[in-house]
Amino acid sequence: MTRSPFSPGFWRSPLRGPRFTSVLGLVLLVGITVLFLTGLVSYAAYNPDLSPVNDKTPDKGLLGFYLFSWPTNPHWLYRLTQGIHVTLGITLIPVLLAKLWSVVPRLFTLPPARSLAHALERISLLLLVGGGLFEFVTGVFNVQLEYVFPGSFYPLHFYGAWVFFTAFVAHAVLKTPMAWRNLRHLRHLRHSQEERNDLVSQDPAEPTVSRRGALWFVGGGSLLLFATTVGQSFDGPLRRTALLAPHGWAEPGSGPNGFQINKTAAYAGIDAAETSTEAWRLVVVGRAGTVRLSRAELLQLPLHSAALPIACVEGWSTSDQWWRGVRLRDLAALVGYDDGDPPDVFVESLQRHGAFRRAALRANQVADPRSLLALFVNGEELSPDHGHPARVIVPAAPGVLNTKWVARMTFGDL
Ligand SMILES: Nc1nc2c(c(=O)[nH]1)N[C@H]1C(S)=C(S)[C@@H](COP(=O)(O)O)O[C@H]1N2
Ligand SMILES: [Mo]
Question: Which ligand 1 atom is the nearest neighbour of the CA of 357?
């Protein structure tokens, strides 16, 4: 039988109906709201107002209305918010797909629009479905293979989120009351009432699975994705359960420096000759001038320790590591900011190419006594891959702001 998807008898699954769609819809209502909020928060955490360095979304205009100074407390803040964003996003994939499957007959309604209002509703659905798929696909690609989007993931995912969420709010306002009613009256919902719904096939095929079974199947899929992703936010044996996480497989080695590495020194093109004690100098610039420090001179400054994690935008994080080095605010004091009120800082690494070779930190991050230019980790010198001879580490900040192989720091309001 070759019926077209536009003909009423084409979609025959007996699972489709308001109940199935309502359950999935309500799960997404909560889940996508959390995704949107944690996403906005993640964007604020980059300090995009410290343009042009950190801002990967120029011309954001009004959409940056809510930006605020990302706090340094609690020190695991970004680890939590971004862990939730990525893990929840991946976990919701089966729910999103099942929801789309449950309403797919509506995609093929003819005529495409019965009235202006109907046309507008369908356009909003296009933004909703297109926007949703777009956000999930770009998100997964970024987590899995960052370089599919050379430098352009941020604007895509950021603007896409606003389009998607606007359509999502409109859809939720229109549909939530009905979805809620459908579920509250689950047991009392008359079969005859259900039948009037356009999602219910008038000529259903034989069921191969119950509705409840189908929901368990979707939930099981989500649970499986969750269980193979969440481990990337932890160390030790748990990390090895993160089969789906891109770094889940890579063994970061053992010993004090044996925690996850994002880009290796070889990848970043760091030349051992440049990082040797003889060659390397830290250049610090501020209103009082420029100071050049050798490693030996840095070691003469007061050294402090802080237990802080690395938490990447990709969702993975490490537990707290013991970093030891010079406070950023002490470095600010060397170049004219010794009044206890340090400014922003622009940090540049030895690396010549690549997106994350430089970053800007806000004054509140510089002022925190746990913010360090670290020389040691867990009692040992930094390894080349973790940023030897010196790297920035800031509490609660996204990993991307923790510049490795630091060569130059410029203090002053950005
Ligand atoms: N110079 C430089 N610093 C960098 C990066 C980089 O590519 N180059 N990557 C950043 C990112 S995205 C993260 S998550 C952390 C990872 O630090 P780790 O490799 O020590 O775990 O380093 C940050 N610092
Ligand atoms: Mo990162």
Answer: 1
Report d(CA 341, CA 347) in Å as an integer.
18
The vertex-90 CA angle with 86 and 95, nearest 5°, equals: 135
Token pair 């070779």: residue: 357
Q: CA-CA distance, 376 to 383, in Å (whole number)?
A: 9
Q: Which of 19, 24, 10 minimizes the C-alpha distance to 217?
A: 24
* Polymer length in residues for the chain: 414
In this predicted model, what pLDDT tens digit does every residue of 262-302 receive, in sequence order?
A: 999 999 999 999 999 999 999 999 999 999 999 999 999 99
pLDDT tens readout for residues 106-158: 888 888 888 988 888 888 899 999 999 999 999 998 887 665 565 678 889 99
Burial 55-91 (b: 16+ CB within 10 A, else e): bbbeebeeebeeeeebebeebbbbbbbbbbbbbbbbb
Helix axis angle for 77-91 and 211-227, nearest 10°, is: 140
312: CA distance to ligand 1 center in Å? 8
Q: What does pTM read for this prediction?
A: 0.94
Tokens of 121: 């509703």
User: What residues line ligand 1, using a CB cutoff of 6 Å?
Assistant: 260-263, 268, 310, 312, 349, 351, 354, 356-357, 386, 399-400, 402-405
Which parts of 218-331 are beta strand (E)? 282-286, 289-293, 304-308, 321-327
What's 265-411's CATH class? alpha beta
Structural domain boundaries of the chain?
A: 8-236, 265-411
Tell me: cis bond preceding 150? Omega within 30 of 0 counts.
no
